[in-house]
Amino acid sequence: MFLGHFAVGLIGRRLTPAVSLGTWFLAVQLVDLLWPLFLLAGLEHVRIAPGITAFTPLDFYDYPITHSLVGAIVWAMLMAVFSRGIFGDSRIALLLAGGVLSHWMLDVVTHRPDLPVLPAGPHVGLGLWNSIPATLVVELSLFAAALVVYLHGRRRPGVAFWAMIAVLLASYFGAAFGPPPPDVRTLAVSALAVWLFVLWGWWVDRQTHTAKK
Description:
This protein has 213 residues and is mainly alpha-helical. The chain contains ten helices and four strands; from the N terminus they run H-H-H-E-E-H-H-H-E-E-H-H-H-H. It has one domain (3-204). It has helices at 3-15, 21-28, 30-40, 64-67, 69-87, 90-110, 132-151, 159-177, 184-191, 194-212, and strands at 45-48, 58-62, 115-116, 123-124. Strand 3 (115-116) and strand 4 form a beta hairpin. The protein is globular, with a radius of gyration of 17 Å.
């Protein structure tokens, strides 16, 4: 899942006015932000296997550090400790930790049974990616609903926000319908681009804050 994770971030931002959109994007995408780094370091592995699912050509056969349930819980706990220190608010810390953990839960819906519960298995996954139409309906509906929640009662967002939404959608459709990456290193380097949306989220909130002055 891709847009679904950002949808959780948009809703989280609505629930916690003191937390920036960039921080929420960091939380909900934390394991995917770390994953390409572990790939480049040779600590996790993936195969490019066109046809393994209808929606993605990637065979996620070894990523227990970032994408096991145990790993997700550890990253969520670290996020809770970090955010408790930054915000001094246990509720915010728990919500951001929940954002980290939501990534694994949403991935269970989309992935084939390749998500480890413990680092060595068992593996789970409901396989939504086996159907392109079903994947599009679920992700786009979730993202649209999150946009409605995020925008409700807010001032009209500026160009920075809508540009970010446009790039998110373009990235999603490009990954879904574009050619598979030529090799794993190229995949890992391109996956680092997700960090852009964390920075962009912080910038959006900064622009909004400046506009209110």
